[in-house]
Amino acid sequence: MTAALVLAAAVVAPFLIVLARRPLVRRLAARNSLRRPVETVLVVVGSLFGAAIITGSLVVADTLDWSIRQVAFRHLGPIDEVVSTRDPAAYPDLLAAGRKLVANGTADGVLGLEVAAVTVSAGPAQELRVLGGAQAVEADLEAAARFGRDPAASGLSGPTPGPGEAVVNRDVADALDVARGDELTVHAYGQQRAFTVARVVPTHGVAGFRGTTSAASRSRNVFLAPGTIDAMAVATLGTSGPAAFIPPERVVAVSNPGGVTAGAQHTERVTRALQGALGPASPPVVPLKQEVLATAAETSRDLGDLFAAMGAFGTLAGVLLLVNLFVMLADERRSELGTLRALGMRRSLLVATFAAEGWLYALVASLAGAGAGVALGRAIVAFVARAIERLGDDLGLRLSFSVDWSSLVIGFALGLAISVATVVSASVRIARLNVIRAIRDAPEPPRQQPRFAAPVALAGVVAAAVWSVAALGAEEPYGTLLGPILVVIALAVAVVTGRRRAAWAVPLASLAVIGWAAVALRISLRQMDADPDINLFVLQGVVLTGAAVALLTQEQDAIVRGLARVARGRRWLAVRLGLAHPTARKLRTSLTVAMYALVVFTLTFVTVLAGVFDKQLASATGELSGGFAVVARWPASSVGALDAIGAAPGVSATAPLATVPITLPGADDRPPASWLLSGFDERLVEIGAPTLAERGGYRTDRDAYRAVLADPGLAIVDPIFAQVHLDATGEPLTIGSRFLVVDPFSGARRMLRVAALARTDLALNGALVSGDALAGMLGTAPAPSRAYVAVTPDTDPGTIARRLMADNATLGIEAEAIADIVADTAAIEDQFFQLARGYLGLGLVVGIAGLGVVMVRAVRDRRREIGVLRSLGFQAGEVGLTLLVEAAYVSVVGALVGSTLAVLTAYNVVTGTDLLGYTIPFSIPIAEVVMLAALTIGVSLAATLLPARAATHVRPAVALRMTD
Amino acid sequence: MEPDLLVATGVRKVYRTASAEVVALDGIDFSVRDGDFVAVLGPSGSGKTTLLNCLSGLDDIDAGQVLLEGRDIQRMRDAERTRHRASSMGFVFQAFNLIAVFSAVENVELPLLLAGVTEREARQLAMTALDRMGLGHRVRHRPAELSGGEQQRVAIARAIVGRPRLVWADEPTGNLDSETAQQVVALLRDLNSDGMTMVLVTHDERVGAVAHRRVRMLDGAIVDDDGPPTRASPAQALGLDDGAT
Predict the structure, then answer these.
(1) pTM (predicted TM-score)
(2) Is residue B88 within 8 Å of B69, Cβ to Cβ?
(3) Is the pLDDT assigned to residue B228 strictly greater than 70?
(4) CA A300 to CA A374: how far, in whole Å?
(5) Disulfide check for B101: which of A303, A549, A580, A622 has CB 3.0–4.6 Å away?
(6) Which residues of B touch A (CB under 8 A)?
């Protein structure tokens, strides 16, 4: 924020001083900016995208940060760390250790909670309302309200419910439509008990407690009298319980000194003290609050960076547009500028005059852009929120739109700085005019290269070569990409500026840069396997496009000559004239083509990636389902759920999984992470386990699964798990990698080795191990809580899934056809790509607006020429056609360059890296790519229609008479 | 006597701005015979260029009639008028007005191509016209690479290459030094000697002197028309040769 303010001041102050002290500069800048109001508006609109895109990206980050941070308030409140156990005997020691911390002033408070996953229902039997995925919580509510010394943060008030009473949070009350005095039923451990709602508390703090760091928006807590859950478990299972039993969790929650978020800064100290008090063999202390805040910071930063990087192409297109507009403005005012110089205006003052005018545009554009950025961010958030809704309450984050003032200031300052830098450099270039030539409007001769250019370029070759070698040796991706490119560019400059002028130098260098940029991307992406950087992709796109446009600019004469050779005869005269203009104004044309190519590049790249992923997902149903059609989940306390599913009509077989939470200890600066571990048995393999992506040395998928069943030290992980949880050396997991898992309830640790990589984990099983391995780690075989379900032939899996839920509502069974899971995932992915395309499409708006502005100015510039053409016998329609042909040339070349390079880049990305954790086949969605290019060209031509129409209405006599 | 190629009667042109009306042509009666060389003279603002624009069909008129070869060009639709212009007229402007992105030969062949002549023939005729203008060595150069005199000669070549019935020249020497101006005027005179009808608009009496007939304008009206043509040599007309030798 401070840096942004300093930057804004640095960009604003010099201009204010110049404008205040130089009345002539002020007058010229102000009058020129008001000379053509419509064009001024177009320039401002074209320039505001930089600030808008930057602000929009920051606002998205603000919203995500704020929304995820709300998880801390909503689901934790004063709770900073927790220690959990399933062993009732160990619980008093955990509680005592926590109390010791409070006694010695290390912590603010300690609270004991007993938690079990249950199903809750309400209403008459014929209209029963059932809520799965709820938690029964037992706690001393009076103590809980005082916990953390902030009753408002805990969300609780009033007495602890007595026997037969329940206190529910707002999420439960809303889902079941119950209020104080109503009855509800809790289903757990095969029991069902009725309770009267004593009161409803807000879903906030301890009242909204969830035992995970998930960003899910709901927590459905039913607070019961102490001893109720145990009584229900014992009633079914007896005091010892069967082997397959997950007892309630006993949680010791610790509150650090300080408020809800401020308390997290004491986490390291408190965690160390608590872990020390508990001893090494105890359950791990889980810093829930810190995890939530770290997730908020990381997610918002990552998504903000993603949108900023995607928006960078639009920003760059805006910069190119601005340069283009200023070059055109300068062309138009050349004789006027020459006259000013002739009258005695110093070059520096000329720069100041031109730059001041641009600064006025940039100032207004950046202010408007920051405002537009908020609207843009709002639109993105709304779109993302819609996509998240598909994940459902249990997985989805509730987004609350939020804007930090610093985002507006940063967006404004950066947008202004980019525009002003562009304007000033364009002004410096423009001011280097020859006075006489400018007055007579004669063309400038080619600039003499300074004598030192060639030696400096040669020094550049050496420096870039050293950098390249060092970067390749150190596997540094930016140096790997840019080093050799700079060598080539410096060499080309040396050749061009040296005594031996060579026309081949630039085309050859451009081809070399394109070739290396394509190859280097593969190398760089491999180098960055652990932490891919989207900015590298942006850089590569810019380099590729720049080189291709440089190549085309050099060869433009030949291209247009070739086209003109085809377009012969009277009928093609307008076409030839239309093609002659881009050739005659190479700088202007290359800027516009580059602007288009950049935009089409990004859009096509995303389209190709979306197509590849779509194709991949299309085959996912078969790969994910193996021999099954439905995935079912239920609370581990729902005794009998698996039997009920197995006995359901249409179900031919089940393969149960026992799924438990695990903690993955953090490495380096990474905090510990919570994940899932699922134990499977022979039934999964027998009927047909999900397809593997990589199975190492195993001959078949079945062999790999059986190896895991046979060896408790082996695991199968999915690509996301492998990317997120690094091995001991900080590298992503591959086959053979080892990783440590910790049972958060007992502290039991186990080192596992990756035996194979699953294709995907759409069923959210986490890492797969054998059921025996899980039992060995936990000391007891946990109850199954999910199952793959096979259905009889000719049965619709969706119907079976719905029937399983309806018939077993009180068991809390949630079931979904695997095909539906895949379809939902595909829809979410599709929405993401739509969002990306929409966002990148902003660049297209810049491009199209830019082309429109360029053409409006072209009509103005060429009025006299239009008059001559009309006097010579050019029909009005033909005059308009020349403009359309010119626009078509720019947009077609831009679209071709952008599409081709995008397909090349996408090919490199898809085949050169393991995008999904494994190599996927490359394919080009030809119809979509062609349609995108055609749409771009079509819309561009539509944007040119207005100026083209204006050109047809130019009256020859008036045009010939006009000088301005 | 040659028949009238162009006959204008009662031509009136008014320029209107938000605050005022300026009568640029006030009921002009004017005719040009085939093979004529007419100079329209007058001070700046007298309506010379407006007359050229209106009579050539480049601009609309508010009243009156302009007949070219018996056809009222002001009644023609824009497309027809444009075609007519392409086939019957040539233009030479003060500021040359060459197409900057075309080479000299491309500029010259432009009216031929517009008139439907084949590419090959158009190129051949354009090369011949440029040769005649003494620019055979500059055919591939773009306007920016030519001197003012060369540009004007390219413009003249462009005006005459299609053998139009009538060539309009609007201050063709206005942007040239006196020596180059003399060459251009001599060129126009030669072209007229070859039978091409010329209407030359100029404020320069010496340039106007080369014409067979001089029409003087003031405040949008013709104040003097010296009627029948006087055949004088270009040198005499320019005062370079008093005829004593």
Answers:
(1) 0.73
(2) yes
(3) no
(4) 16
(5) A580
(6) 49-50, 53-54, 56, 58-60, 78-79, 82-83, 85-87, 91, 93, 95, 97-102, 110-111, 113-119, 142, 144, 158
